[in-house]
């Protein structure tokens, strides 16, 4: 087994570290015997995390399988920005040195990863993939909403169970450290968890004569993770820069005229780099070689993306479907056409 060097989990969500502890691109086998060996050999875990890891190998496996989803969501949210939630191959962690800086990007990564753990475990519970949980057992009997009375039925997603495990496991290291950065991580972890719960919705099925809704059966359902990503992206845009209070127990805003951050806000300490050039110290990989939009005025424009360095244009041919026609019944036939397009990429730093 190729293990990470000792200490590489420092200031990292253990979930991220666990992803980088894979062998040959696949998850370690997490059988009853193998789980203790694996959990004992992941560097950076505190005792509480090792204990939970050994006790719940199937939960750890579910988390590992879901990590690609929240990394993909992070990359979707920032695909047109200088920082695009890029991952780094063959580094000690998938985000390089980015997470060593207490920036708003680090705040987003912690929030989306914490949310991803909750979402993944909640879904696994409802789908019967875990022995320790299933549907929410508290959603039974009758209740009311703005539309009137309804009966609980179906399978309500058991988000509370997932939130409890996520808090116990992901937060354990930060709770042991209790320094300024640990408090920041704890705050953003919680904001991510709360986002998943906040976006749950009541779904109902109507029963009654001629499809009337005289009787409703309802259940609580998770929102698609894209909505969580959109929500946390808005929180990223409005993230609050903070400093520690005089007692070292919490935050106050860096700019006194701004309101204190709520539990739903993302918080950060340090200004972000501009991500224009490669800088190993800050974790920036630069924008050299990134595709930009010459006609845009937004963040994906060549002027903004390339940081004024200019861009190169290449002419390429792409295969595309064209002249599509509908044939009764029921098929669509298209021709394969070649489309010549210009692709603009940012010049590298000189």
Automatic annotation (TrEMBL):
It comes from the Eukaryota. It holds the Pfam family wnt. Its main location: secreted. It is found in: Secreted, Extracellular space, Extracellular matrix. GO terms for biological process: animal organ development; canonical Wnt signaling pathway; cell fate commitment; neuron differentiation. GO terms for molecular function: cytokine activity; frizzled binding. Residues 1-25 form the signal peptide. Coiled coil: none annotated. GO terms for cellular component: extracellular space. Keywords: Developmental protein, Disulfide bond, Extracellular matrix, Glycoprotein, Lipoprotein, Secreted, Signal, Wnt signaling pathway. The keyword Lipoprotein applies. Belongs to the Wnt family. Ligand for members of the frizzled family of seven transmembrane receptors. This is Protein Wnt. It comes from Salmo trutta. The lineage of its organism: Eukaryota, Metazoa, Chordata, Craniata, Vertebrata. The gene is WNT2.
């Amino acid at each position: 087994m190729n293990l990470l060097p000792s200490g590489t989990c420092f200031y990292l969500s253990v979930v991220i570290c666990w992803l980088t502890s894979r062998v040959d691109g696949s998850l370690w086998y997490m059988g009853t015997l193998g789980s203790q060996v694996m959990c004992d050999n992941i560097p950076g875990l505190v005792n509480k995390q090792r204990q939970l890891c050994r006790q719940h190998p199937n939960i750890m496996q579910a988390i590992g399988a879901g990590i690609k989803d929240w990394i993909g969501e992070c990359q979707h949210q920032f695909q047109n920005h200088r920082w695009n939630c890029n991952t780094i191959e063959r580094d000690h962690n998938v985000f390089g040195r980015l997470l060593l800086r207490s920036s708003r990007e680090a705040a987003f990564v912690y929030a989306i990863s914490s949310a991803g753990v909750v979402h993944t475990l909640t879904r696994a519970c409802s789908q019967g993939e875990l022995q320790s949980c299933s549907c929410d057992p508290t959603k039974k009997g009758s209740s009311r909403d703005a539309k009137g009375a309804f009966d609980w039925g179906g399978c309500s997603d058991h988000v509370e169970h997932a939130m409890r495990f996520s808090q116990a496991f992901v937060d354990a290291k930060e709770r042991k450290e209790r320094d300024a950065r640990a408090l920041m991580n704890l705050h953003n972890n919680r904001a991510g968890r709360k986002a998943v719960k906040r976006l749950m919705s009541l779904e109902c099925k109507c029963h009654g004569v001629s499809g009337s809704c005289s009787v409703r059966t309802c259940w609580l359902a998770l929102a698609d993770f894209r909505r969580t990503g959109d929500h946390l992206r808005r929180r990223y845009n409005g993230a609050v820069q903070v400093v520690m209070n005089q007692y070292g127990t919490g935050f106050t805003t860096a700019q006194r005229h701004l309101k204190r951050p709520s539990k739903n806000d993302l918080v950060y300490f340090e200004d972000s780099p501009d991500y224009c050039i490669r800088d190993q110290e800050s974790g920036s990989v630069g924008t050299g070689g990134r595709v930009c939009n010459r006609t845009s005025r937004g963040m994906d424009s060549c002027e903004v993306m390339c940081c004024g360095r200019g861009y190169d244009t290449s002419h390429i041919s792409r295969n595309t479907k064209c002249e599509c026609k509908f044939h009764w019944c029921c098929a669509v036939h298209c021709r394969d056409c070649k489309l010549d397009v210009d692709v603009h990429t940012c010049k590298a730093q000189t």
